[in-house]
TrEMBL record:
<dbReference type="InterPro" id="IPR008183">
    <property type="entry name" value="Aldose_1/G6P_1-epimerase"/>
</dbReference>
<feature type="binding site">
    <location>
        <position position="258"/>
    </location>
    <ligand>
        <name>beta-D-galactose</name>
    </ligand>
</feature>
<dbReference type="InterPro" id="IPR015443">
    <property type="entry name" value="Aldose_1-epimerase"/>
</dbReference>
<comment type="similarity">
    <text>Belongs to the aldose epimerase family.</text>
</comment>
<dbReference type="GO" id="GO:0030246">
    <property type="term" value="F:carbohydrate binding"/>
</dbReference>
<dbReference type="InterPro" id="IPR047215">
    <property type="entry name" value="Galactose_mutarotase-like"/>
</dbReference>
<dbReference type="Pfam" id="PF01263">
    <property type="entry name" value="Aldose_epim"/>
</dbReference>
<comment type="pathway">
    <text>Carbohydrate metabolism; hexose metabolism.</text>
</comment>
<protein>
    <recommendedName>
        <fullName>Aldose 1-epimerase</fullName>
        <ecNumber>5.1.3.3</ecNumber>
    </recommendedName>
</protein>
<dbReference type="GO" id="GO:0006006">
    <property type="term" value="P:glucose metabolic process"/>
</dbReference>
<comment type="function">
    <text>Mutarotase that catalyzes the interconversion of beta-D-galactose and alpha-D-galactose during galactose metabolism. Beta-D-galactose is metabolized in the liver into glucose 1-phosphate, the primary metabolic fuel, by the action of four enzymes that constitute the Leloir pathway: GALM, GALK1 (galactokinase), GALT (galactose-1-phosphate uridylyltransferase) and GALE (UDP-galactose-4'-epimerase). Involved in the maintenance of the equilibrium between the beta- and alpha-anomers of galactose, therefore ensuring a sufficient supply of the alpha-anomer for GALK1.</text>
</comment>
<dbReference type="GO" id="GO:0004034">
    <property type="term" value="F:aldose 1-epimerase activity"/>
</dbReference>
<comment type="pathway">
    <text>Carbohydrate metabolism; galactose metabolism.</text>
</comment>
<keyword id="KW-0119">Carbohydrate metabolism</keyword>
<dbReference type="InterPro" id="IPR014718">
    <property type="entry name" value="GH-type_carb-bd"/>
</dbReference>
<dbReference type="InterPro" id="IPR011013">
    <property type="entry name" value="Gal_mutarotase_sf_dom"/>
</dbReference>
<keyword id="KW-0413">Isomerase</keyword>
Length: 388
C-alpha cells in the first residue's frame, strides 16, 4: 500500500509575480520502504530512499535540505523538471509552420538550453491533485514565454507502486502549434548521496544503445548526425565499471560522460522501452530505466567543482560536499535540437493533440558482490572493462 504525506519545505519567490510563496513537499512511500519526495519548486525530485541488500535505507538522489540550496545552485538543475524544450536549440531559433520562431538565448547569448532563462526548473508548480499512489503537479506556460508560441498546459504525475517502480508521466496540451520536449534531470548515486567519488566509481552501468548524437566541441551543440559507439568509451552495451570508463577521459578535453544516446529511431510514444541498468555491487542496489522517449542524455557531473583545483564544493544534503563526478544524471528526452532536424522524431504538437512522456525507474537489490564474489575475479572484470 502506498501513502502520501505533505509538509512545508520552505519559501521561494515566484519568478512571475515576485511574491514569496510556500513550497510544499510530498513524500510517497510504499510497503517496501521505497520513499520518493517531490517539491513544488521546479517539480523537483528531492529524494529517493531505497533499502540495500543489508536492509539499510539511503537517499540515492543528490540535492539540498532547503530552498536556499536549490536557489543558489539552480543552474545545475538538481532533480528538476526541464522544459518547455530541454537540451539545446541551436542558434536559438527554428522554423515552424513556415515561419521563423526566435526563442531566448541563455547559452553564450547564441543558443537556448533547457527552456531559457526561466525554464520549468525555476517555476513553482501548482498541486493539481493528490493521488492514492502519488501527486500530480500542474503549470501553464504562457504564450510567448521565452519565445515559444502557445499557452502550454503541463501536468506531471509522480507515482510509485509496491513493485518499487517510480513513474514520471508528463502530459501537455496547447492552444497553438508549439515545440515540446520536457524531461527531468536527477543526479543519482546508488551508494548513497553522501558517498561521493568512491560510491559513484563502484557502479556497473549499461545503456542499450548503438549510437550517440554527434556534437561539436563542448558536447552541447549537435550536428544532427549519429556516431557508432563500437570500439569507443561510449560503448556501454555490456556492463562496465563507471570508474574505469570515466578515467579514460583523463586525456580528453571532456572530463567524463555528457552524451545523448539514441534509444530508438523508430520512435513510438505508445511504447515504453528498456533503456539501461545501473548497479552498485557493494550495497546491492540497482536501478533499471524504462522510457518512451527516443534518446537519453547521460552525464557524470563533469561541471561540478574540482577538489584538486581548490574550488569550493557544492554543499548538499546534510552538509555533504559534492565534487566533480559525485553523481550521474539521466535525462530521457527527444533528440537535442530536434526543432531544427526534420528527420528526427516529431517535436511539435498542435491544438487537440496530447504530448506524453513516460519514464519508469525500477529499484531493487541483489546479493552483494562483497559477500559472494572472488576478489581476483572482480579485479579481472575491471581490467576487461578497461580494454573494452
Amino acid at each position: 500500500m502506498v501513502k502520501v504525506v505533505e509538509d512545508i519545505f520552505g519559501i521561494a519567490v515566484n519568478p512571475f509575480n515576485k511574491q514569496a510563496q510556500v513550497i510544499r513537499r510530498y513524500t510517497i512511500t510504499n510497503t517496501n520502504r521505497l520513499s520518493v519526495s517531490i517539491i513544488q519548486l521546479g517539480a523537483t525530485v528531492h529524494s529517493i530512499s531505497v533499502p540495500d541488500a543489508y536492509h539499510q535505507t539511503a537517499d540515492v538522489v543528490l540535492g539540498f535540505d532547503d530552498v536556499a540550496g536549490y536557489s543558489k545552485y539552480r543552474d545545475y538543475k538538481f532533480g528538476c523538471c526541464v522544459g518547455r524544450v530541454c537540451d539545446v536549440v541551436n542558434n536559438g531559433e527554428f522554423i515552424m509552420d513556415e515561419r521563423r520562431v526566435i526563442v531566448s538565448k541563455n547559452l553564450d547569448e547564441k543558443h537556448q538550453i533547457d527552456g531559457g532563462y526561466v525554464g520549468f526548473d525555476k517555476v513553482i508548480w501548482d498541486l493539481h491533485m493528490k493521488r492514492p499512489d502519488g501527486v500530480t503537479l500542474r503549470h501553464v506556460s504562457m504564450d510567448g514565454h521565452e519565445g515559444f508560441p502557445g499557452n502550454l498546459a503541463v501536468m506531471i504525475h509522480f507515482t510509485i507502486d509496491d513493485d518499487n517502480r517510480f513513474f514520471i508521466r508528463i502530459e501537455a496540451t496547447t492552444d497553438q502549434t508549439t515545440a515540446v520536449n520536457i524531461s527531468n534531470h536527477i543526479y543519482f548515486n546508488l551508494a548513497g548521496q553522501n558517498t561521493g567519488l568512491d560510491g559513484i566509481f563502484g557502479h556497473r552501468i549499461t545503456i542499450e544503445s548503438d549510437e550517440t548524437m554527434e556534437t561539436l566541441e563542448g558536447q552541447i551543440l549537435t550536428t544532427g548526425q549519429f556516431k557508432d559507439v563500437t570500439d569507443s568509451v561510449y560503448d556501454i552495451r555490456l556492463p562496465v565499471f563507471m570508474g574505469d570508463r570515466v578515467r579514460q577521459f583523463e586525456k580528453s578535453f571532456i572530463p567524463g560522460y555528457d552524451v545523448c544516446y539514441a534509444i530508438d529511431k523508430e520512435f513510438d510514444a505508445n511504447i515504453t522501452r528498456y533503456v539501461g541498468r545501473f548497479l552498485h555491487p557493494e550495497s546491492g542496489r540497482f536501478m533499471e530505466i524504462f522510457s518512451n522517449q527516443p534518446s537519453i542524455r547521460f552525464a557524470t557531473a563533469n561541471n561540478f567543482p574540482q577538489e584538486l583545483h581548490g574550488e569550493e564544493p557544492i554543499l548538499g544534503k546534510r552538509c555533504t560536499r559534492y565534487w566533480q563526478h559525485a553523481g550521474f544524471s539521466l535525462q530521457p528526452q527527444n533528440y537535442p535540437d530536434a526543432v531544427n532536424q526534420p528527420d528526427f522524431p516529431r517535436i511539435f504538437i498542435n491544438p487537440g493533440e496530447n504530448y506524453f512522456h513516460e519514464t519508469i525507474y525500477h529499484f531493487g537489490v541483489q546479493e552483494s558482490w562483497k559477500c559472494c564474489a572472488d576478489p581476483d575475479e572482480l579485479e579481472q572484470m575491471g581490467e576487461e572493462s578497461i580494454k573494452t
